[in-house]
Amino acid sequence: MLAGCFRGLRPGGKLIMTVPLVEMNDHLLLKSRWYAGLRQRQLSHVNLLPREGWNKVLEKVGFTRVEFEPYLSGRACRFWDAIDSPGCIGFGRYRVATGAGFLAQKLLPPGAKAWMLRRLADWLRPLATAEAGKLPACAAVVTAWKV
């Protein structure tokens, strides 16, 4: 997929993507290989690499300049896992989060969902920004240039 992105870019073009880092596994709710594997499958993280691994993969397909900007600290990652993991419980497409979303759509008055999401974002923003840029990072924004 990355090779296709490289081919599709003009010289001077850049690929910008967010990637989880393997360090994410150190900051999950449960410190076990089994749980880390479960979360990786639930989130469809096929390539969970360290920063150096992403750099090698991108250089191998032809990108010459690669920059990383961490955006999810270990503490924020643990918090995210605490609020995300319950919604992933289920089987196939039948998950707690899907059912809760369906019920909210059917039961809440018009505009209530948007209001609730704004309130949730207002509550989470200070938690996320207070930790921004602190290492170790669990995820990064990657910018790769085609020269």
Tell me about this structure.
With 147 residues, the chain is of the alpha+beta class. The chain has one domain (2-145). Helices cover 48% and strands 20% of the residues. The protein contains six helices and five strands. The protein has helices at 2-8, 33-42, 51-60, 74-84, 96-107, 112-131; strands at residues 14-20, 65-73, 90-91, 94-95, 137-145. Strands 1-5-2 form a three-stranded antiparallel β-sheet. It is globular and about 50 Å long. It starts with a helix and ends with a strand. The mean pLDDT is 85.
Topology:
Blueprint: H1 2-8, E1 14-20, H2 33-42, H3 51-60, E2 65-73, H4 74-84, E3 90-91, E4 94-95, H5 96-107, H6 112-131, E5 137-145
Antiparallel strand pairs: 1-5, 2-5, 3-4
